[in-house]
Structure formats: structure tokens, C-alpha cells
Predict the 3D structure of the following.
Amino acid sequence: MAKGNYYTYITTNPGKSVLYVGMTNDLKSRMQQRFENLGKKENSAGRYYCYKLVYYEAYSDVNQAIRREKEIKDLGREKKNKLITSVNPRWLFYKV
């Protein structure tokens, strides 16, 4: 079992109309990659400008992070909104 720092995260676009759920072992680099992909139609960051970090959770176990990513992806929009609002009520964009 791989150990380390793993993150499940949610990004949104500047208008907060699109949510993207992902998992990574390097949150800072991943957010930079999402920003660099703006305008590229082959990925969600490019198509939907979904690069603003509004929520994340940290895990020491990769399997827990993957499991949580799947759980969040299965939530409807309303439940995702509540999850984000529970820790980030104003939906401020995090800088990592």
C-alpha cells in the first residue's frame, strides 16, 4: 500500500457553474497543470475553465483518497455544494 500525501479536491470555473472532482499526490502541481490546460478542448480544465480550487481533503493513504474521490463524484450537485460550503462558505478560491 502506497503511503504519502494524497488529496481529493474540487475545482470550479470562475463563474462557479461547473465542478470537477479529482485526486492527486501533488496538489500544487496539479492546480498548475489545470491552469496551463485552459482553452485545451481535450480536457475539463480547458473546456470548462475549471481550475479554481474550492475544496480539498488530505489523506496519507492513496486508496482512501481514491475511495473518497469516487464518493464525492457520486454526489449530486446540491450535496457537493453543501460539502464545499461546510468548509468554505464563501467559495473563496484557495491558493496552494
Summary: DSSP finds four helices and three strands in the chain.
